[in-house]
Write a structure and sequence with these properties.
This protein folds into three domains: 1-36, no CATH class; 45-72, no CATH class; 86-122, no CATH class. It has four helices and two strands. The protein has helices spanning 17-31, 86-93, 99-107, 113-122, and strands at residues 45-48, 51-54. A two-stranded antiparallel sheet has the order 1-2. The longest helix has 15 residues, at 17-31.
């Protein structure tokens, strides 16, 4: 366990209590014996013989542990009825619908929202 001694700096004249707390947190970070790093990156990979093999270089150290999120979205055909086309996204971006209008429309849906969307897109 890390137990480095910390000296609390005195507050600068006229500085707020919040500023003093921020300086104290900075002191803690500077005195830690390690660096906290965070990386989030999406990469394509192939699963072969029980191993995920990235299709591009990843800046990791050998045997570094990471958290992996699996998405097989590539298996969904682009023309699937639940996938919106780029034109549909562009049209939706230009909509000037208010939050009250959205709430009003959602209030009329019986059952689940997903069932309503599936039914609407089935008619395409």
């Amino acid at each position: 366990m890390w137990n480095a001694p910390l000296k609390r700096r005195s507050r600068a004249p006229g500085a707020s209590r919040g500023a003093d707390d921020l300086v104290f947190l900075q002191d803690i970070a500077e005195s830690m014996p390690y660096t906290i790093r965070r990386m989030e990156k999406t990469v394509q990979a192939v699963y072969e013989d029980g191993v995920l093999r990235p299709l591009e270089p990843i800046p990791l150290e050998d045997r570094q542990e990471v958290t992996v999120t699996i998405s097989d979205e590539g298996d969904i055909p682009r023309d699937h009825s639940l996938v919106a086309s780029p034109d549909e996204w562009a049209d939706a971006a230009g909509d000037s619908i208010s939050l009250d209008e959205v709430r009003s429309a959602l209030a009329t849906i019986r059952g689940s929202l997903s069932e309503a969307v599936i039914e609407e897109r089935r008619d395409r």
